[in-house]
Amino acid sequence: MTVASFFDSMDYAPSKEDDKSARAWLASHDGSFGHFIGGGFTDPAKGFDTAEPATGARLATVTQGTAKDVDSAVAAARKAQKAWAALPGHERALKLYALARMIQRNARMLAVVEALDNGKPIRETRDIDIPLAARHFYHHAGWAQLQESQFPGMDPVGVIGQVIPWNFPFLMLAWKVAPALALGNTVILKPAENTPLTALLFAELAKQAGLPEGVLNIVTGDGETGALIAAHKDIDKVAFTGSTEVGRKIREATAGSGKSLTLELGGKSPFIVCEDADLDAAVEGVVDAIWFNQGQVCCAGSRLIVQEGVAEDFHARLTKRMKTLRIGTSLDKTIDMSAVIDAGQRDRIAGMVDAAVAAGATLIQSEADMPESGTFYPPTVLQNVPMTAAAATEEIFGPVAVSMTFRTPDEAIQLANHSRYGLAASIWSENVNLALDLAAKVQAGIIWVNCTNVMDAGVGFGGVKESGFGREGGREGCFDYLKPRAFAKAPLRKESAPAKSKGFAFESVDRTPKFYIGGKQARPDGGHARPVIGAKGEILGEVGEANRKDIRNAVEAAKGAASWGGKTQHNRAQILYYMAENLSIRAEEFAERIRAQTGVKADKARAEVTASVARLFSYGAWADKVEGTVHMPPMRGLALAVPEAIGIAGVICPPEAPLLGLISATAPLIATGNRVIAVASEPHPLSALDFYQVLETSDLPAGVLNIVTGDAASLASELAKHNGVDTLWAFGSEALSKTVETLSTGNLKRVFTDYGRAWDWTAPEAEGEHFLRHATQVKNIWVPYGE
Amino acid sequence: MSQPAPLQATEAHARNAGLPLDLSLIEAMRVNTSASERRASQLPGRRAVKGDAQSAWLLKAVTCIDLTTLNGDDTEGRVRRLCAKAIQPVRPDILAALGMADKTITTGAICVYHRFVATAVDALKGTGIPVAAVSTGFPAGLSPHATKLKEIEASVKDGAEEIDIVITREHVLTGNWQALYDEMRDFRAACGDAHVKAILATGDLKTLRNVAKASMVCMMAGADFIKTSTGKESVNATLPVSLTMVRAIRDYEAMTGTRVGYKPAGGVSKAKDVLTYFTLMKEELGHAWLQPDLFRIGASSLLGDIERQLEHRVTGAYSAAHRHPIG
User: Fold this and answer.
1) Is A635 within 8 Å of chain B by CB?
2) Active site residue B263
3) How far is CA A760 from each of CA A4, A10, A733, A765, rounded to the nearest angstrom?
């Protein structure tokens, strides 16, 4: 090509980013790497190659992390943790600030290594991944600085095992490492086996920046190494980003261990285009939604949901736009898309697309030239996909969007929410009323109004439903790397032998308490009862023995009470106050019942009732003060962090404190708009059943609080397995916590448990924000503005 | 009236006959500002043009420049000097070094006030370079309507082949689309065979929504080109405004099959900027809009920067303005 021929053709010429310094860095390690443990690299050992997806060429060999390697990394992190946490926040802030600076100084080399190793275009690593990673370290340097003042009563979780995916190797490292280190934790991070290089480069930079030994450890390896980290006995928390399938395994592996867990998993995020949208902007949004990073983005807008009246126009524009997309190798600066991660992924994408087409989908595919070597798949849209095809509902994790139409906003919501996932959503409309209404109703952790795939360190990222739990970024993300000091030292509950009965106590009339389901008293489905044995061994009465059908009925009742979440906060507050009022009228009776069941002295029993009234008042007070935050990300606009109810909650009440335990565990959920199925204290269930009489006089809508009695462990299992239950709070034995965490994987419900530690329910920290945070999840709504 | 000299690559470019005003279509136009800004800001990062391609694109940009002087102190001598520059905008030794000696590289047009149209026509005789006249009470456009029409006719009579009219911004700011349409229709008629460029003065219109609607109304009324600015507003051509206007052009072509040209003016002063503008045209409209019959740049200082960049490309040494003939 000559100047003259370009003058006539006006074509683009390939323009390649210089990779000399990246190659020189690889050469300085002779192309082979060990782990980074305790402040230095181990000798390279048996491992595997990492290659350039865009060409197939080998880049380097990395070491497969063994149990011994993981042990040694965990030991290094454990050794470093106390001193790191003991540093004043300012000292940690200085280190994080130095890491941010170091990333900026080496930004181009990091961008090139990342593009080579992952196969994504250099534009993305240079303009998005690396700058955003630096921003995460700056932002979290700030949280380190402010930790003492902003998070009083909270301690770092300790040693964190972090397992990250290959789609954003360096950015995910930053999302995981920055908050962990900022708040005084130490880290063992395993980068994905396909993309280990920027993590190793970062380790080297961190060492140069003076990060103390053992604070950050990088262990390379495949899924087996990841499993070793997740299951390691001396790790306090696992933070995972990756597939929902692996997330479930990690949930099972960590169940009952007391390890804190955050999971950022898959998605099938809706991209809703309303008829009043700027269609050209929405088309460009699709480019950013599904062809960013070859669509290998957990929050990719992969389900286009377009209003019927504009669907034809929109698809015509989209089809035209696809003709100008350019595909090339990752260092080419004149492309929109490059290679997917490997041949396996490409074949999987192709298989799902082929199956959808075979099932009747219409294929719209870019015909852009693609390099001959390397693992490329063209930008693709599937129209008219049968909802039964895997492509319609499952995460493809490639440059493929499926497209469907809607008639009314209600139908858009119905389609958007008809998914196991709930990570992100993008909404396109020029009408602020419509856009914000849809934003409120779509079930997702992140909503982008008239934009997509924008992220910032100051705005929490994370999903709902089977997209995982926990937030990364912002104040909301900090809480996932902190734990309340108060509960840490609570003693383990003692196993108590079942009380022996001495026969029925005298009661003037034989009362038969029932369950309380859907606002009505209900008899047990199985027709069985269990005796309640008082402190002196006398049988105080018999209560129903709930079974799985009673649980099912209670969940159905809770489902029917969905409007509770839509009540005003003021209204919910009024009802909680009213419950307190009605309880206080019957204080003596409740105290006597507590005394009879538990054998505590009368004044202590009265104190429990008084505390219960006060706790109801507290949550009445909180009900209209659970507020969100307005984040100010670097754009002209706002990100509204809105705490939302999780949905339907199961609660296994603690065995002790039969009344206060029930109130403490259900009131925060009710106050924030959840509906609850409570299993009463197993040994002392009568107080909970007495309480439904209070509910009946307190205007609490039917189905908001349902109460059953019976065997806590088996009912906990039923609740944990029920896919209509969104969160499960379980207080009791260590075994109970293991059961509920293990069985909660079906729909990845959020579990809140005491791991067998008997919390002091009378203590001030047994109420308030910690509980409210567990009762809600933050939805971040990005609203750029400007005319 | 003389036939207008052919613009380059005329075959692709039929005159815009216009459409009846469709108010419902105008009211339905939507532009999201933040999304437009995002697209505009991403564009340079998505496409790099380096090496020979860059030199070629810069030379192409020269052929698209409406070399402009619109100052109160313009004189016949000043205009003749500018015309000489238009005829030979790049030093022959540089063209030769780039292997472009046998290509005729001239600017797209000369752009002047009515007073200097005859001068420029005379200076450019035989070159095929058209003369464009700014008109209709440029820059504010607040002269009596009849006077504006007479001004157009006078410039056409003096030999202007292109007329750059300014719209009455009030019509846009008050949403009086019918008045804008009627005004533009009259301007178009007064131009006869001369091509008409509609200057929207986007810096005065303020919102992208206004820009989109004004673009569409002017095209419906028969504008052959839509142009951003007079160069006299406080904000001239920007990428988001350009994106909005070229998308309107695309919609108009989809409706009518007619290609309307685009002219950013003011604010495009660096060689690097013009590469981004070309990228915008190529990505949003396509190859046809990379030629002077459908793309012009209203600029006075851009040419100087392109000359310096080209010399740098040829010699490897950074250039200085005085090494190139003054315009």
Assistant:
1) yes
2) yes
3) 83, 75, 15, 9
Q: What is the dihedral of CA A698, A699, A704, A707, to 10 degrees?
A: 40
Distance (Å) from the alpha carbon of B58 to chain A's nearest alpha carbon: 9
SS3 track for A269-306 = EEEEECCCCCHHHHHHHHHHHHCHHHHCCCCCEEEEEE
- pLDDT by residue (tens digit) across A447-477? 999 999 999 999 999 999 999 999 999 999 9
Active-site residue, selected from the candidate residues B85, B148, B197, B263: B263
pLDDT category at A505 given cuts 50, 70, 90 is: low
Measure the CA–CA gap between A64 and A49, rounded to whole angstroms.
10
Q: Give the list of residues 6+ apart from residue B35 with CB closer than 8 angstroms, or none.
A: A278, A281, A282, A284, A285, A450, A451, A784
A2 touches chain B (CB under 8 A): yes
Torsion of CA B186, B188, B191, B192, to 10 degrees: -100
Q: Give me the number of domains chain B comprises.
A: 1
Contact residues on chain A for B247, CB-CB shorter than 8 A: 280
- Token representation of residue B128: 């095929």
Query: A724, A744 in Cβ contact below 8 A?
Result: no
CB-hemisphere CA count at 13 Å for A720?
Answer: 25
* B8 belongs to a structural domain: no
Structure tokens at A57: 């060429």
Closest chain B residue to A127, measured at CA = B45
Phi, psi of A271 (to 5 degrees): -130, 100
Does B6 fall in a domain?
no
Q: Copy the structure tokens of residue B176.
A: 């009086």
Is B305 a catalytic site residue? Answer: no
pTM: 0.96
Q: What are phi and psi of A317, to 5 degrees?
A: -65, -40
Q: Which amino acid is at A210?
A: G
- Residue B137 forms beta bridges with which residues? none
What pLDDT, on a 0 to 100 scale, did the predictor assign at position A507? 61
List the single best residue of A1, A2, A7 to mutate versus B (max B Cβ within 10 A).
A7
pLDDT in tens, A572-613: 999 999 999 999 999 999 999 999 999 999 999 999 999 999
Phi, psi of A331 (to 5 degrees): -90, 0
A238, pLDDT greater than 90: yes
Residue numbers of A annotated as active site:
264, 298
A434 touches B: beta carbon within 8 Å: no
Give the chain A residue nearest B207 (alpha carbons): A787
Q: How far apart are the first and last CA of chain A?
A: 44
Is the backbone peptide bond immediately before B139 cis, with ω within 30 degrees of 0? Answer: yes
- Identify whether B1 is part of a domain: no
Contact A3 B247 (CB under 8 A): no
pLDDT digits (tens, 9 = 90+) for B62-104: 999 999 999 999 999 999 999 999 999 999 999 999 999 999 9
Task: Give the residue numbers spanning the domain of B108.
Answer: 23-323
| Residue B218 falls inside a structural domain | yes
Q: Which of residues 123-162 of B touch A (CB under 8 A)?
A: none
Task: Name residues whose C-beta falls within 8 Å of residue A744's C-beta, 6 or more positions apart in sequence.
Answer: A251, A720, A728, A751
DSSP class per residue in B78-141 = HHHHHHHHHHS-S-HHHHHHTT-TTS----SEEEE-GGGHHHHHHHTTTT---EEEE-SSTTTT
Q: Write the CATH number for B191.
A: 3.20.20.70
Would you tell me how many other CB atoms lie within 10 Å of the CB of residue B88? 15
- Angle A197-208/A169-182 helices, nearest 10 degrees? 40
- B283/A786 CB distance under 8 A: no
Q: Per-residue pLDDT tens for A640-669?
A: 999 999 999 999 999 999 999 999 999 999
Q: Where are the alpha helices (DSSP H) in chain B?
A: 23-27, 33-46, 51-63, 76-87, 92-97, 117-123, 145-157, 169-173, 177-191, 202-205, 208-220, 239-256, 271-284, 302-315
